Amino acid sequence: MRKRDPSQKSWAEPWKIKMVEPVRRTxxxxxxxxxxxxxxNTFLLASEDVSIDLLTDxxxxxxxxxxxxxxxxxxxxxxxxxxxxxxxxNVRKFYGYKHVVPTHQxxxxxHLVAQIYIKKGDFVPGNMYFTTTRMHQELxxxxxxxxxxxxxxxxxxxxxxxxxxxxxxxxxxIKKVGCEAxxxxxxxxxxxxAGGQPVSMQNARELRALCERYAIPVLLDAxxxxxxxxxxxxxxxxxxxxxxxxxxxxxxxxxxxxxxSAKKDSLVNIGGWLxxxxxxxxxxxxxxxxxxxxxxxxxxxAGRDMEAMARGIxxxxxxxxIRARVGQVEYLGQKLLSWDVPVVLPIGGHAVFLDAKRFYPxxxxxxxxxxxxxxxxxxxxGVRTMERGILSAGRDPKTGQNRLPRLELVRAAIPRRVYTQxxxxxxxxxIEEVYWNRKRASGLxxxxxxxxxxxxxxxxxxx
Length: 463
Ligand code: F0G
Fold this sequence. Notes:
Elements: H1 28-37, E1 52-53, H2 65-71, H3 82-95, E2 99-103, H4 106-117, E3 123-126, H5 131-139, E4 143-146, H6 167-177, E5 185-188, H7 201-214, E6 218-221, H8 225-235, H9 244-252, E7 257-261, E8 272-276, H10 279-292, H11 303-316, H12 319-338, E9 351-355, H13 356-359, H14 369-381, E10 383-384, E11 386-388, H15 390-393, E12 409-413, H16 421-436, E13 444-448, E14 459-462
Parallel strand pairs: 1-10, 3-4, 5-6, 6-7
Antiparallel strand pairs: 2-8, 7-8, 9-12, 11-12, 13-14
Helix pairs in contact: 1-14, 2-11, 3-11, 4-5, 4-10, 8-9, 12-16, 14-16
Bound molecules: ligand F0G.
C-alpha cells in the first residue's frame, strides 16, 4: 500500500467555523488619510479601518463553543465564585503552581509581582525586556538587566533556542551586585521581543540549578509558555514523544511562580493570573490584589471571564491545537522567506517579525525604520502590524536618552483561530509589494511623545 511520508503531510485546523464577522475593505486613498490622522501609529487606527489585524495576538483570539457556553455559567458572586475554583484547579493541574490570584490581565499580575518582590536599588535579570514587564520592575525601584544569549539580538542567527538565558552573564551579575540585590530572575518563554523565540528545557534546568545555589527565585512570564512547550517538543532531544501538556508542566516545575496574560495562550479576550509556590509571597499577593484589582477570588474579572479562561487553558495545551496555531505562523513566515523578504529566523511562535534594518537600510534609526514599515504595510493593504524597535524601547529613565535596541522589527502577530491561510496569502503578497518598493520609503519623526510606554500613543509625521 502506498503511503505518504508523515512529515510531508498537510495539517488542518482541529476546528471548523460556526460564526463569522465581516471584514471591511478600504481604498489606498482612504487609508492614507486615516494613517495621517493616526500620526502614523498603527495603535491609533480604528479597528474598523483595518482589514487584516495583525497588531497583536493578545485578546484577539476566537473562543470555542465550549468557552462561549462557559460564559453562560458565570457565577457572579463577589466572593468565592465557582469559576474561580475552576480556574485555580486548572492552573494547578496544567501549570503546577500551588497558589493562584486572578488579575484583569498580564500587567496586573506584573504590577503585583514587582511590588511584592522588588525593593529600591534591586537588579532584575531577564531574558530580554518586555515593555510592560520592565515598566513595572522600574516603577517598583528595580533596574532590568538583559541576560539573554547573544544570538537573540541577531535576527539572522538560526539557533533553535534564542530565548535561552546566558548563564555566564547571569552569574557575572550575581557576583557583581550580590544575590541580595536580585529579587528574582524574570524568565519569559517564549521571548516576545526577540521574535517569539523559545527557551529550552535544558536551559531552564541549568538556570534553576544556578539560582538554587544563590537562593534566587525564578519567576516565569508564562504568557506564551504553551507555544514554548511546543517548540521543545519539536526541537529538543528527548521530547518528541511527550505531550505538550506534559512538557509545559515539567517546564513550570523548574520555576517558583509565574504571571500570565491569558489573552495569548489561553484563548480569551481578557484575563490573567499570578501564581506562586511561596506561602508568604502569596499571602502578600492575595492582600495587594484587593487594592489594585479586586477581591482575591475575582481579581478584576467577571466570573464568566474566569470560566472562559479555565476552559481556554484546557484547549490551549491540546497538541493538535498548538500545532495548527504555530503552523499558521510558520506558513506566513516561510512564504515571505521564499520571496527573500528579510524576516527574523527561526520563525517565532506567535508572530512573523520583519527585519526593518535590512528592509530599509537607507532609513536612519532616528527616523524609525520599523514604524515606517508598519505604516507602509497598512497603506498597501489595510494590514495592521506593530513596531518593535527604537520607538517601543523608549528612553532610559536615568539619562532620558533613546534606548537603542539592536533589533528594529515589525511584528505581524497572528490571532489564534481567527484568520485563514488565504488571509496569510494576502498579507504576504502585500508585504512583498512593500518590499519591491522599499527604496521609495523615507522615515518618520516624532511630533508627540507620551511619558510611559510611548509607542502606544506617540504621533509621528513623514520627514
Ligand atoms: N508578557 C508578555 C510576554 C507579553 O507579550 C505581554 C503582552 C504581557 C506580558 C502583558 O500582558 O497585555 O495582558 O497586560 N503583550 C501584548 C502584545 C500587549 O501585543 O504582545 P497584558
